[in-house]
Amino acid sequence: QVQLVESGGGLVQPGGSLRLSCAASGRIFRINAMAWYHQAPGKQRELVAGITNSGGTNYAEFVKGRFTISRDNAKNTVYLQMNSLKPEDTAVYYCYMRVLSAGRAEYDYWGQGTQVTVSS
Question: Phi, psi at residue 91, to the nearest 5°?
């Protein structure tokens, strides 16, 4: 079993910054893909940013130039640095990981979600 634990959400003023972290623990051979999604009230969950095992990244258009995703493979952790935050970034943020087990099977895991609120 694998558990993902998120941290770093909170309340911030427009233009401010937050850094989210998500650490995985459990039976992990390798983590192939890591990503952050968000879900605003009444809306579907959508991809914010993703990063591959080799470090390749992709971003949603609405965060390009403001957010940066990174990973520490030694710590099985993914980060999301969020700068120039806007009220429309307000949402619950979920981390996602695709984990390769010792038996070479892939499994998808989600964090519990952390609230980010951007408001003055």
Answer: 180, 170
